[in-house]
Amino acid sequence: MGLLADYTLQNVMLGAALIGVISGVLGAFAVLRRQSLLGDALAHAALPGVCIGFMLAGAREMGSIMGGALFTGVVAALLMVALTRNTRLKTDAALAATLSLGFALGVVLLTWIQRRSGASQAGLDSFLFGQAAATTRADLYPMMILVGVALVGVALLWKPLKLMTFDPIFAAVTGLPVQWLERLLTAMIALAVVTGLQMVGVVLMTAMIIAPGAAARQWCGSLLGMVILSALLGALAGIGGGLVSALAPGLSTGPVVVLLATLLALLSLLLAPRRGLIPAWWRRRHRRSHTSTDRILQTLYDLAREHGDWHYRVEQGAVDAYHGMITEPQLSALADRGLVVPAQHMPDEGRHWQLTETGVAHAAEYAQRRRRRFGNGA
Amino acid sequence: MSGLADPTIAILLTGMLVGMSASLLGSFLVLRGNSMLADAISHSILFGIALAWLLTGQTSGPVQIVGAALSGVLAVYLIETLTRTRRLRDDAAIGLVFPALFSAGVILINVFARDVHLDEHTVLLGEIGFVWLDTLVLGGIEVPRAMLAMAVMLMLDAAFVLAFYKALKLATFDPDLARALGLAPGLIFYVHLSLLSGTAVAAFDAVGVVLFITFVVVPPATAYLLTRRLPSMILLAMALAAASAPLGYALAVWLDVSIGGAMALATGPFLLLAYAWRRWRAGRQKRSTQPVQSPSAPA
Amino acid sequence: MNRIGEGLGQPHEPDLALHVEDLTVSYGDRPALWDIDLNIPPGVLAGVIGPNGAGKSTLLKAILGLVPLSAGHVRLFGHPYAAQRRRVGYVPQRSSVDWDFPTTAVDVVTMGLYGRMGWLRWPGRRERDQALRALEEVGMDALADRQISELSGGQQQRVFIARALIQQPDILLLDEPMAGVDATTERSIIDILGRLRREGRTIIVVHHDLQTVQRYFDWLVFLNVRVIAAGPIDSVYTARNLRRTYGGQVALLDEGRQRNAGPENDGPAG
User: How many C-beta atoms surround the C-beta of residue B149 within 10 A?
Assistant: First the structure.
């Protein structure tokens, strides 16, 4: 309990929670709008702004540093839009170019400051990977303001943002100022990036935008649910990572938070009930055990009838495609009962199966039973 | 100190070699619309560099380059696997994979490599200013190790592009036709990205992993705006990258700032100039075609 | 029935330009093409028609080995595609490539030769001359050195056709060559295709415009995941086949149709 009363630790956890919430909320939009990497470009381009803010304030003052970062982030976004809209450069190249040039300018300014102001350099270095332990109560206030602005903005513009995310063309047709909304959303993503600079750092802030949104996407079908869950997961990763790095000094905060967020995303990808890979695999298996061997036999029978040859050889891939699953176990079971036999056809094809005389009789009987049970097709 | 081990010459030549090999391979990446893979690869190799250092105690040398390059290829493979699950778009997959590998690399360094040669800032930003310190003697000539590694990588990259130029071009322009003609575009893609990873590893001493992506993307993007043929685009991109090295060096010496950062930054003005030139041309074309009533209207 | 044990070297149905048997292609859970049998004799100009999502492009890609086959086989003049690469020309959808690519019309046409030039050899004067001749055939020789982004949609399409012609293919596969081109180009494309047919080549065209089907083609394939009908145009171009192809979802197996269709949702297909 003494641990949680620790003043620095309180700051760290509060700050990390703030970052998680804001990047989770805005990341949900970025992921859905396929703009995940926008956050990456904005974060790298924030580095020169950090340096400019420092130079203007003459000290490591969070307000002006965040202002500077926001400014260069927005300039980078404008440059990106100009490059894609006015030339034949594609989005990916424009993103990569602004990202890398912004970072290069940041590195140049960073070394310029370091070689002039000597001792105070330590503070700026931490913006690369984030250093949670350096967070003071005074650093938290500007962060709170940014989070407040972003949350109020999203709440006020909820309906237009939602419409624009799901159907930008329809949104434009209904008369929404889609271009302005896009710019606003970009600016708010820049807000999220700036909030996280201090603790997560410019290099890794992209993961905080993407991972919670990508994780929440797996669990939720609705935008509201997704945004809320994304914020919670972001906060969870932030608090967890903040704690670990505060307790194990020497570990940069950013990487720990990012690994936690990635872990959450991977777990969601595997476990989420509807979209998760393991439940999907389980459903396929379940369906497999419930798709009776009789149904598979029936498919072979129908195909044989269609081809006008009771001994028509059916390729296993076709049966798999028809049932949307691997049918090998059922076919082997049918073979054990002597209803089908494996066969070969063309040398460049897979395994085939062929009905035996008993198989044809069995399938015909099964078909008749079905017809009687379900009425004669009408 | 004289010859290749002279600090200025060593720094300039290494920078030019980094720029030329990066933009040679980068041209095809930009044309394929995969520029952000350069971002993913260059970040992800930090994991490989840290791991190779843990296992061998070295950060340079052929084994280390190959080993670390594998983590770049691993990143590409993971991105493709995640995208194939159809639970994530490719942009989200990229953004999920490379920060995780980069973070894993930083944490490995944090935990195991405290106070030694390898620290994450050097890996991130590079220290081209020191390349002349670490030399070896080759045929009686003292050669900086980083420069030698870059020269070898440039030769490998150039040999690959020259030998498989047709297949590489077709795999970039029309992968379906490349496959239909039997030119294995998937294989070409992986060899290309493996070489890019290897080049990034060899270059990290000089410019760092993040600045490497500048040379991969910016000079090819600039050349793309200025040329209309693939060979001229590639050559111009390499020339611009090579020119950025001395320009950046001069800037760095003048302002006393990071040399790698300044070299990367020096590619920027070329892009802005190319952009301005295209805008100016587009404006002039619009004015000169204005008298003709809407030329795009159907006849 | 004694085909079992036949080696890949042995021709199978060598008298047919295209022989497709039991072909199934599946993306994820649903078949895109299901149990397709299709034979096209040499020397016809065949149209493939069907609604969106019917698997028309997938059929061409399956023939060219660009998508994995779940089941079945494809033979061109009796042999698998891999053994017949040089006899087959392919014109993909125009939108499948980036026309901002820094290259010229004549260079794109030369790409058609890359397969037979081997891995390492660079194209030279001879290849350029061949490409110029192919461009001449489609009336584009004057624009040979134009950057491809400066060409109109119709001109780009003709460059693509020239790229296939340079291979001197016996079978030519075209994916919606008339999409988004002007009337003049459409007429010149159909002229070129008619000329190729008279030279004895086999042409298979994915087509979307029902208005022109009867004028353009002498063979027709109705496709909607399954082959609904295929044959000489006079015998298969019927209202019934059109209705069955475009009348909604086609059941994969007759048994399935009987099972699913009640009296109230018995569509026109039933």
Answer: 25
